[in-house]
Specification:
This protein is of the alpha+beta class. The protein folds into three domains: 33-108, Nuclear Transport Factor 2, Chain: A (Roll), CATH 3.10.450; 210-358, Roll (Elastase, domain 1); 370-544, Neutral Protease, domain 2 (Orthogonal Bundle). Helices cover 26% and strands 23% of the residues. It has helices at 33-47, 124-135, 276-298, 348-361, 370-391, 442-445, 447-458, 492-506, 513-528, 534-544, and strands at residues 61-70, 76-84, 87-90, 94-99, 102-108, 140-150, 157-167, 173-181, 187-192, 194-196, 210-217, 223-231, 234-236, 238-239, 245-249, 259-260, 262-263, 267-268, 311-316, 323-326, 331-335, 401-402, 418-419. Strands 1, 2, 3, 4, 5, 6, 7, 8 and 9 form a nine-stranded mixed sheet that branches. Strands 10, 14, 15, 16, 19, 20 and 21 form a seven-stranded mixed sheet that branches. Strands 17-13-12-11-18 form a five-stranded mixed sheet, covered by helices on one side. Mean pLDDT is 91; it is low at 1-21 and 200-205.
Length: 549
């Protein structure tokens, strides 16, 4: 089948009550590769025996370990992908929790041993046509299609996963995945793997770069220290202290990986948006801060937990008012704004947001659609906000708003992309859960989880200070959905640790809001005590306050 190739698309913009310490049993240890491999082998053995029924194993199911966490008390949490007769089972992933060689529990969404016939009645080309009717004619390269078992619905069905790539009209690249029922051509679900903030290159022949420290004269944060390298007489924006992450200049184009940002001195930028290296310095600082946050707060060594730095691309497109993470290139991309009301999208919380999409891709890997997609977006908002609090810069005071630094005219700090303490202030995001929330754009359905997190950390308290929300005439009663204004927050330290453990240990790709409540309660029990402990009870109360019961 001959397809015309062009660019298109659209990506959317304790146990003890008073204790703030983490349970020693639940604290993850830095296990050796050998121990992690042994844990995966033990998990496979259990899946061949006593744990088979617990994970709803069919006879032709097979499993591959994707990630392993080992707690200090020896509890092992092995995240596994599932295939059936060699076909990927979409939504069949799970986490097996074991201790002393015994299965303790399973985190999963698949609820049946039933599997579909693997004989399609729809052809591969017909499936591509069905997906193409939704995508449109403007795509790049050839679409691809593969047979999968789609298990994110009520019952597993045979489907084609059809992928179309291109560029949206706003210049955002797109990598759309459509799941087409292989019996009737119905599109079961679709999502984009390009995950946006809104609805590596060579070193130019340098064979022995020397680590150096320079000054980034940023647009949004003033003068900041940055880690770079010196190569002969040239300085390059490569951070060897954080996995060799690079910053490149796309030069207002949308193709390729850009050109490494370099200079003849160790000073990059002018504090004004009149030279390409200014916002490159902003991106460098945001990426470094996010790396440091994950390492120092959660013990995570880079996005993939493998010590590898990511690529950051600035000056993407012409008047491109967005930012996005692309897992395929392990890179973040920042646009320059719309040329009018929006600054370049290189704020601290935006950088933290985008890098957190990469962390999500290597942990729970929440599907970017429906309720799981809203939770994916909320995860990035949560950790983008926590990066902002971690840095605690007087030039970017931390708060529970997303992207307020993006707006050029924002003297009182009340404009933002999203408001975690009262999501509906953006006129699009719901404050409270409802059964149809999965029909919303993921940037809006994320509001309920953002709202939960604010209540968990801070309680039913109207925020004060910069970007407080008092300008919106809020009251404690307006911050909850069930009238419970007695919620007292557990603090950001506990809240961020609970959420991180939930995504790394309990959530799976199809986790919905009910599953997120269960996952965070399990994480709270691991870290701070189970049912009856103040922390556990507050997690439950915060979810109930946004109508997730």
């Amino acid at each position: 089948m001959q397809f015309q190739s062009r660019l298109l698309t659209a990506a959317i913009v304790s146990a003890l009550a008073a204790s703030a310490t983490v349970h020693a049993a639940a604290a993850a240890v830095q296990a050796t590769p050998q121990r992690l491999a042994a844990a995966a082998v033990r998990a496979q053995s259990l899946l061949n025996g006593p744990a088979a029924a617990s994970v709803h194993r069919a006879g032709a199911d097979a499993f591959v370990a994707r990630d392993t966490i080992v707690d200090a008390n020896g509890t092992e949490h092995v995240r596994l992908e599932r295939t059936y007769h060699g076909l990927p089972v979409i939504g069949g992933d799970f986490v097996l929790h074991t201790r002393n060689g015994q299965a303790q529990a399973v985190s999963q969404t698949l609820k049946t041993i039933a599997r579909p016939s693997l004989v399609p009645t729809l052809s591969r080309d017909a499936a591509i046509v069905e997906a193409g009717n939704q995508f449109g004619p403007d795509f790049a390269g050839l679409p691809t299609a593969r047979l999968v078992v789609y298990a994110r619905g009520a019952a597993p069905v045979l489907a084609y996963e059809v992928s179309f790539s291109g560029t949206r009209k706003d210049q955002t690249p797109t990598d759309m995945h459509y799941f087409v029922d292989a019996s009737n051509g119905r599109i079961l679900e679709h999502y984009d793997t390009i995950e946006t903030a809104l609805p590596g290159p060579d070193q130019r022949g340098c064979t022995a770069p020397t680590p150096a420290v320079g000054t980034g004269k940023t647009l949004l944060l003033g003068d900041e220290t940055i880690n770079i390298v010196k190569c002969g007489l040239q300085y390059q924006m490569v951070d060897t202290t954080r996995g060799g992450g690079k910053t490149t200049n796309m030069g207002m184009t949308t193709l390729g990986m850009g050109t490494l940002v370099t200079g003849t001195s160790d000073i990059f930028g002018t504090n004004l948006n009149n030279t390409p290296s200014t916002v490159a310095a902003d991106a460098n600082v945001g990426v470094a801060a996010t790396w440091d946050y994950y390492k120092n707060v959660h013990g995570r060594n880079g996005i993939a937990n493998d010590g590898r730095g990511a690529l950051s691309r600035v000056h993407f497109g012409v008047f491109y008012a967005n930012a996005f993470w692309n897992d395929a290139c392990f890179c973040m991309t920042f646009g320059d704004g719309d040329g009018g009301t929006l600054n370049p999208l290189v704020a601290l919380d935006i950088a933290g947001h985008e890098m957190s999409h990469g962390v999500m891709a290597r942990t729970a890997n929440l599907t970017y659609s429906g309720e799981s997609g809203g939770l994916n977006e909320a995860n990035s908002d949560i950790f983008g906000t926590m990066v902002e609090f971690y840095v605690n810069s007087s030039k970017n005071p931390p708060n529970y708003m997303i992207g307020e630094k993006v707006y050029k005219d924002n003297p009182d700090g009340t404009k933002a992309l999203r408001y975690m303490f009262k999501p509906s202030l953006d006129k699009k995001s719901p404050d409270c859960y409802s059964a149809d929330i999965g029909n919303l754009d993921v940037h809006f359905s994320s509001g309920v989880a953002n709202h939960f997190y604010y209540l968990l950390a801070e309680g039913a308290v109207v925020p004060d200070g910069f970007g407080a929300g008092t300008w919106a005439n809020l009251t404690p009663a307006s911050l909850v959905c069930n009238g419970n204004t007695a919620i007292t927050g557990i603090g950001r330290d506990k809240a961020e640790r609970i959420w991180y453990r939930a995504i790394t240990t309990y959530m799976t790709s199809s986790t919905n809001y009910a599953g997120a409540r269960a996952a965070t309660l399990s994480a709270a029990a691991d870290l701070y005590g189970g049912i009856g402990s103040p922390t556990y009870n507050t997690v439950a109360a915060a979810w109930s306050a946004v109508n997730v019961n």
